[in-house]
Design a protein that fits this description.
Layout lengths: L1 H6 L2 H24 L8 E6 L2 E6 L1 H20 L9 H27 L14 H21 L8 H15 L8 E6 L2 H18 L4 H16 L2 E7 L2 E6 L3 E7 L3 E9 L8 E5 L2 E5 L3 E8 L4 E5 L3 H26 L1
Parallel strand pairs: 9-11
Antiparallel strand pairs: 1-2, 3-4, 4-5, 5-6, 7-10, 8-9, 10-11
Length: 333
Amino acid sequence: MGNFRDSVDVRALRFAVGFPVMLAAGFTVCAFLVRSDLPEPLAVRWTGNGAADFAPFGAVVGSGAALIVLIGWAVLLQAVPLSRPALMRRIMMGAGLALSLFVTTVLAAVLVGQLGLDNARDARVDVSVLAMGSGAALGLGVVMGFVFKADERWSVDDDQAMREALEREQDPELARDSVSLWVHARSSVFVMIGIATLLPAALLTIAVPWLAALLVAIALLAAAFLVARIRVDRSGFRVFAAGFVRVMDVPAAAIDAATPKEVRAADYGGWGYRSHGATTALLVSSGPAVVVDRSDGRHLTVSGGSIAAADNIAQVLSRVAARARRNGEAADL
């Protein structure tokens, strides 16, 4: 429960839950106050020739109240999580208020347009109520967006950021021993993948939908393995295919050497992830790469993006590996 309260704005949550319910309750009470002046059943849909569909009073009021609550909750609750930007929370609070009031306005215009009628076939939506209510809903929504105070509270992420800042302050060299880099194939390669798979898939959509879906899946998988995220810090060397699938993970103490090198993807079996014997590679293109030699005799090769980036990664890996070996020797002593 404590974690939940730390992750949401409790005051905004109360308003997001309570306002649509109170608005729906007010609409229901007002509808019952004018019940005797309304026809039965009520008109709920109109065409060019007049009222076309009808529903009982209870169904109209019950469905309308439920619609006010559900739409209000759906939008207003987006302003509750503290993890979202303050501007987004303010926009969603204003939009939720405006939408709730607009739905109520439409329902009120439907009822007012049928007051005093014996037959709902002669009913019309009251344009005056709709216009004035819509304007008020928009104006109040804008005002709410400006006056809502989206307080940013201290969270677990702030604790983590504070710890990292203290570590950097106590150890100025820590920032130099950390690298995070995205590498990807040239844009022309992704264009060719799209031409080779997505265009045929579009032509096959009508005739063989499952084959079209298969081609799209193949295109996405191929493109994903031409994108990689490289992460180097004092704990070691990690590479993630498509940005999140970990394909390489080497502790710093297990790194024997790291060398920048110009490579040809064809020498490793092509682009993407490859593993042959003691050699593992993730290449998104031919060109600058980093070759990591493990202490167990295995060799890892990953694209470096540019010559400068590959050289920087190799230097940082060499530095963190040497540090890890020194710390290990000191612990053994």
